[in-house]
Design brief:
four-stranded antiparallel sheet
């Protein structure tokens, strides 16, 4: 698991901090989809992968774009509205932590909202989602461990952001967030550089130094990764996934997916589902 050594000493100092229960899921809302009002009953991490989410928490409006992760706390009334222009795909992890120390809650409440969805958090989310179909006798314990790990990573990444300690160059982070939020759109290098407030040649040099690839190569990698994620976790048609991930044609999407996986989009989906579609998410756990 990425970053598994981070915050370990702090976790050891709180051996009683162990979730009573953890659930994980994902859902796709069509354009104009809504949810609620509802009362939140757990700590919930919400990862928005595609589209966008607006949530009113006790009447206060907050916005979470694609490529973000946010936290919700129990006891509050929530109402959600999703993108009116495209499907919104998000995943979620619920943690029941009745003994969460007040100091940890205060630290979580001080964080920016939402946070950028880091590669490490994205990978942890995928691992948690895959446990839904696991036959391991230890799956429940693994899921609780992953859920707690994700909460600690959320806290650590948020406090690093608060301290102004970017994981990379600030312009690269701005470009990365812009790319993630606009995957479905036709983007040129000039568009990304403008969003990052830096010249295109300088942005290319920074991306090569940090990712060993150009911004455009990074853009296409993210489109392919998002497409594979939608194939594995939703029943959306391949053509619609291609469109929402910024591909001009299904053929181009299929070619890129095969280059990345040696499988066609249909084969990627069959492998992930074990020949069977995933269970639809429960409407009360979103």
């Amino acid at each position: 698991m990425p970053g598994v050594g981070e915050n370990v000493s702090e976790m050891i100092m709180m051996p009683h901090l162990w979730p009573e229960h953890v659930t994980v899921g994902d859902v796709v809302y069509p354009p104009g989809g809504v949810l609620g009002p509802r009362i939140q009953y757990s700590i919930e991490l919400v990862m928005v992968h595609n589209g966008e989410m607006t949530v009113w928490i006790d009447g206060q409006c907050r916005y979470a774009p694609a490529g973000s992760v946010s936290i919700l706390f129990p006891g509050h009334e929530e109402r959600f509205a999703f993108s009116t222009q495209m499907d919104t795909y998000h995943s979620f992890v619920h943690l029941w932590l009745p003994d969460l120390p007040d100091e940890i809650e205060r630290r979580l409440l001080r964080l920016p909202w939402p946070l950028p969805l880091s590669s490490a958090m994205h990978d942890l989310t995928r691992s948690a989602l895959h446990l839904r179909r696991s036959s391991l006798s230890t799956a429940d314990g693994l899921l609780r461990t992953l859920g707690l790990h994700m909460l600690w990573r959320y806290l650590g990444e948020g406090e690093r952001l608060l301290a102004g300690e970017e994981s990379g160059h600030p312009a690269v982070e701005r470009a990365r967030q812009f790319i993630q939020a606009h995957l479905s759109e036709s983007l040129a290098l000039a568009d990304i550089a403008q969003a990052a407030a830096i010249s295109p040649p300088h942005l290319i040099r920074l991306f090569r130094a940090e990712f060993d690839r150009t911004p455009i190569a990074y853009l296409w990698e993210q489109r392919v990764r998002q497409g594979i994620e939608l194939l594995e976790n939703t029943g959306l048609p391949v053509g619609l996934i291609a469109e929402q991930c910024g591909f001009q044609t299904s053929y181009h999407f299929s070619r890129r997916v095969r280059q990345a996986t040696d499988l066609s989009p249909v084969e990627v989906r069959r492998r992930a589902w074990g020949q069977e579609p995933p269970h639809p998410p429960e409407s009360t756990v979103q």
